[in-house]
Amino acid sequence: MIEEPPLLTIRRDAPRPTPEQIAAFQGVPTSFVCDAMGGGGALSPAIQPIGFGRDIDCTAAGPAWCAENGAADLLATLAALQTITPGDILVAGADGHQTCAAAGDRVMGMLKNRGGAGFVTDGPLRDYAGIVKVGLPAWCTGLVPSSPFGKGPGTVGGSVAIGGRTVCTGDMIVADRDGVVVVPFARLDEVIARLEKVKAAEYALDAEVEKGFCSPLDLEAMLADGRAVEAG
Fold it and tell me: Which residues make up the binding site for Mg(2+) (predicted)?
């Protein structure tokens, strides 16, 4: 016979980014962060800014505070509200369940009251009008009116498998209208250092495009050295 698990497991041993590391990701587009990670880090595009960002400015960056829930449950999410650090982004796994909301406007309101910077889930949300009124940035798979239960079991402060990746408490979440990117805690300094190069390259190219620059390819050179050929 399988042993019944505890309703809640709360972990408090996860590492946390420094204030300087957190500040380095503020206001940085997700595309820049992905480039600094060699093209990786993004969650599945199924996880989108709620309402596609038309009514809420869905831009946020902060450490992940993870709540692992079972399907159609939110007990870990509710426990995370009491343990989250202001500025964190609550990453609430719903086991990918799509026929029941992972949370609604009241949870968003309480999370905002606790100082949370945003909410990310692999399930849908509910109470769209109420969430817009709260104004907290949120990323989800859509909307559905049905409510979750709060029975558990669940884990807070550990890790969550979400959007094709494993997110650990203490990883950095950077999210905007393009989606959600996860920077593992162990790679923070490496990615921050690369971000400066990405920013410089992106801003330089922006300036060139504004001046009329049309193409980054030198087709004549490619034809000359055989990297391109003309056919027909």
Answer: 127
Q: What values do phi and psi take at 200, rounded to 5?
A: -60, -45
Q: Does 105 count as an annotated binding residue?
A: yes
Segment 49-80, tens digit of pLDDT = 999 999 999 999 999 999 999 999 999 999 99
Distances in Å between the Cα of 65 and the Cα atoms of 57, 119, 148, 180, 213 are 21, 10, 20, 15, 43
Q: Domain with 151 in it: what CATH number?
A: 3.50.30.40
In a domain, 124, yes or no: yes
Is 107 annotated as a binding-site member?
Answer: yes
Q: Based on the structure, what is the number of domains in the chain?
A: 1
What's the CA gap between 177 and 159, in Å, rounded? 24
How many angstroms separate the CA atoms of 219 and 203, rounded? 24
**Phi/psi of residue 9, each to 5°?**
-120, 125
Look at residue 80 and tell me if it is in a domain.
Answer: yes
DSSP letter at 44 equals P
Task: Say if CB 21 and CB 172 are below 8 A apart.
Answer: yes
- For residue 228, being part of any structural domain is answered with no
Could you say which DSSP state residue 143 is in?
A: B
Per the model's pLDDT, the better-predicted residue between 33 and 210 turns out to be 33
